[in-house]
């Protein structure tokens, strides 16, 4: 018996085994999507060959007629999807099918619950491609050869999807890939040509390559799909269902898009774009190395995918295609990095996406609220990345405020300005590491008393965003936790006079507290902010906020500590009692308690929690003994 020395049995990566089980069970109710996924993969493989052949035409090996073929063998109970695209080498087969080399995969899989409906949605966000074969097949055979390699370097991959796969070298004359599905019992519908044609019309009619099947009762092949670039057709000829099907193809998605824009731009630059906003954020949205979702074509010829230069990073969730009439077909990725034409296309595409978002915000508020929930934090990045569109982005921002019901982020800056009280000249905000901390911040007390709305900012990106967003419609943004509070016309003369009198009356107490706290504080002063709490901490108007300091330290940044100002509420019973304290040690302990409580109230962490508890207990015992 001759043993093939190239044959080996390998195990799937643990994440692949888990994903295979979930795909089979969670997507079974929509099992026909396996054909859509395999045809999309075949289309991508042909696109990649076309791109690589721009610099190396020999890769075509004389076969320039790129196509996808679908055929059945009822006797053998097999369904084959074949392409003459780029193909794969042995190493690429292992990398692309045996493993999932994507950041965040383990965390993604941990989110899956076992609820088939919910898991199907999440799996759709992840993208499953080839693995969907096992929804209908109990064995899958893949035969492939990478363009440019000799025929004897073909590779045969086979698996039942249960943990292992076999790999061996085989002879393959043509480049490309054949995926052969050995259908499970009960899946006979996928051996019927009429059923396959219906699925292709439903999901893959827009594929720009011809999809071929044999005519009924003949060996002659015919094209099943329209095979014309959808984006190049007039909008009046495209149905909503076709737009949706193309989105699912280009984004490898399982649900319709939230919104899309299809536009032909003419002028110095001529290009067509078809761009989609997904309903849900991809699982790897916060991976800075994650793939971008734009494919570049030149005169309907695929050039490259993942074109980060075609869309700013803060719009990395956008999916779709851009087709240029002006770029050369042999353009390289390196040339694109420094191309004025690409810069102009990027600026135009960005404007179209922002137009779409503005339309949603104005006319489809519920849909925009869904968009903001998924992508709002990413859009905030644009304030620092895109100076040209900063004003437009500011209008698209949504926040929670003290006027909101619950924690819904539904307040625009325009809404806020329209509701500003007479005499108010600033947009007030507070930052914290959670909505709860922002909502209960002691810095809000005087604003609540006066009925002045304050924005509650608790996203991590907010502190960074605020370094670029200084004003809106001529109204400066002001932190309620920075600098000496100046309410301007919102404070009447009687309040100003009372504050001055309090400052004078309690100046000795302020000096004693400052001496007791020493280097822990920059200063101590009588507060205008507080109406209920005993004390709060504030920083200088142009200094880093204490919330930002905590965020940077949590991220491992070495930042100089900000010395805060302690503000005291002289009308609070504890502060009033402290004025009469004659014991120096107890006075120092109470001063430190006020400082530590102020830190805790705004979400800070104490350097020595045990000392705080011990001191507090001692003071409580001393009071109880009196």
UniProtKB/TrEMBL annotation:
Q: Does the keyword Chaperone apply?
A: yes
Primary localization? cytoplasm
* Domain Histidine kinase/HSP90-like ATPase, residue spans: 30-187
Q: Where is this region: C?
A: 551-626
Q: Which InterPro entries match?
A: HATPase_C_sf, HATPase_dom, Heat_shock_protein_90_CS, HSP90_C, Hsp90_fam, Hsp90_N, Ribosomal_Su5_D2-typ_SF
Query: Highest taxon of the source?
Result: Bacteria
Q: Does the keyword Cytoplasm apply?
A: yes
Quote the CDD domains the UniProt record gives: HATPase_Hsp90-like (cd16927)
Q: Mind telling me which Pfam families this protein's record contains? A: HATPase_c_3, HSP90
> Where do the segments described as A lie?
1-333
What are the subcellular locations of this protein?
Cytoplasm
Q: Which UniProt keywords apply?
A: ATP-binding, Chaperone, Cytoplasm, Nucleotide-binding, Stress response
Family, according to the entry, reads as follows:
Belongs to the heat shock protein 90 family.
Q: What does this protein do?
A: Molecular chaperone. Has ATPase activity.
Q: How does it assemble?
A: Homodimer.
Protein name per the record: Chaperone protein HtpG
What is the protein's species of origin? Thiobacter aerophilum
Q: Which gene encodes it?
A: htpG
């Amino acid at each position: 018996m001759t043993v093939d020395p190239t044959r080996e049995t390998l195990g799937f990566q643990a994440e692949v085994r888990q994903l295979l089980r979930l795909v089979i069970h969670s997507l079974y109710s929509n099992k026909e999507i396996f054909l859509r996924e395999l045809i999309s993969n075949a289309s991508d493989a042909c696109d990649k060959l076309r791109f690589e052949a721009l610099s190396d035409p020999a890769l075509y090996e004389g076969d320039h007629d790129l196509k996808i073929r679908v055929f059945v063998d009822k006797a053998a109970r097999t369904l084959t999807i074949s392409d003459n695209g780029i193909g794969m080498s042995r190493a690429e087969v292992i990398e692309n099918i045996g493993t999932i080399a994507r950041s965040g995969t383990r965390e993604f899989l941990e989110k899956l619950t076992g609820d088939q409906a919910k898991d199907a949605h999440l799996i759709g966000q992840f993208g499953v491609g080839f693995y969907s074969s096992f929804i209908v097949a109990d064995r899958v055979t893949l035969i492939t050869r990478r363009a440019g390699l000799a025929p004897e370097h073909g590779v045969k991959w086979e698996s039942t999807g249960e943990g292992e796969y076999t790999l061996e070298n085989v002879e393959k004359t043509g480049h490309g890939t054949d995926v052969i599905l050995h259908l499970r019992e009960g899946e006979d519908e996928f051996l019927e040509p009429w059923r396959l044609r219906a699925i292709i019309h439903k999901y893959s009619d827009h594929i720009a390559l011809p999809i071929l099947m044999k005519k009924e009762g003949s060996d002659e092949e015919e094209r099943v799909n329209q095979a014309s670039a959808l984006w190049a057709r007039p909008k009046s000829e495209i149905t909503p269902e076709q737009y949706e099907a193309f989105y699912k193809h280009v984004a490898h998605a399982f649900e319709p898009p939230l919104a899309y824009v299809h536009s032909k731009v003419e002028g110095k630059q001529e290009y067509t774009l078809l761009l989609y906003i997904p309903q849900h954020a991809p699982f790897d949205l916060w991976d800075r190395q994650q793939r971008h979702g734009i494919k570049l074509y030149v005169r309907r010829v695929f050039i490259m995918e993942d074109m980060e230069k075609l869309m700013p990073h803060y719009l990395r969730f956008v999916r779709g295609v851009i087709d240029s009439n002006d770029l050369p077909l042999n353009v390289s990725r390196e040339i694109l990095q420094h191309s004025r034409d690409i810069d102009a296309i990027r600026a135009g595409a960005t404007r179209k996406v922002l137009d779409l978002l503005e339309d949603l915000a104005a006319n489809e508020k519920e849909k925009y609220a869904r968009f903001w929930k998924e992508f709002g934090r990413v859009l905030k990045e644009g304030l620092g990345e895109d100076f040209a569109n900063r004003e437009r982005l500011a209008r698209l921002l949504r926040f929670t405020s003290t006027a909101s019901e619950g924690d819904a982020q539904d307040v625009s800056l325009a809404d806020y300005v329209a509701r500003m009280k007479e005499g108010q000249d600033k947009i007030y905000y507070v930052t914290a590491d959670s909505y709860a901390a922002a909502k209960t911040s002691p810095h809000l007390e005087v604003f609540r008393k006066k009925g002045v709305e304050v924005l509650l900012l608790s996203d991590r990106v907010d502190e960074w965003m605020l370094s670029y967003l200084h004003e809106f419609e001529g109204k400066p943004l002001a932190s309620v936790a920075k600098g000496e509070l100046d309410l301007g016309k919102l404070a009447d003369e009687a309040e100003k006079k009372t504050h001055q009198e309090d400052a004078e009356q309690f100046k000795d107490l302020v000096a004693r507290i400052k001496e007791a706290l020493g280097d822990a504080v920059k200063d101590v002063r009588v507060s205008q902010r507080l109406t209920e709490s005993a004390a709060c901490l504030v920083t200088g108007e142009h200094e880093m906020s204490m919330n930002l300091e905590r965020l940077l330290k949590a991220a491992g940044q070495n930042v100089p500590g900000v010395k805060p100002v302690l503000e005291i509420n002289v009308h609070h019973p504890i502060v009033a009692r402290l004025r009469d304290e004659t014991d120096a040690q107890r006075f120092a302990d109470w001063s430190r308690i006020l400082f530590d409580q102020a830190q805790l109230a705004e979400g800070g962490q104490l350097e020595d929690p045990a000392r705080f508890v011990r001191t507090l207990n001692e003071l409580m015992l001393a009071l109880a003994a009196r």
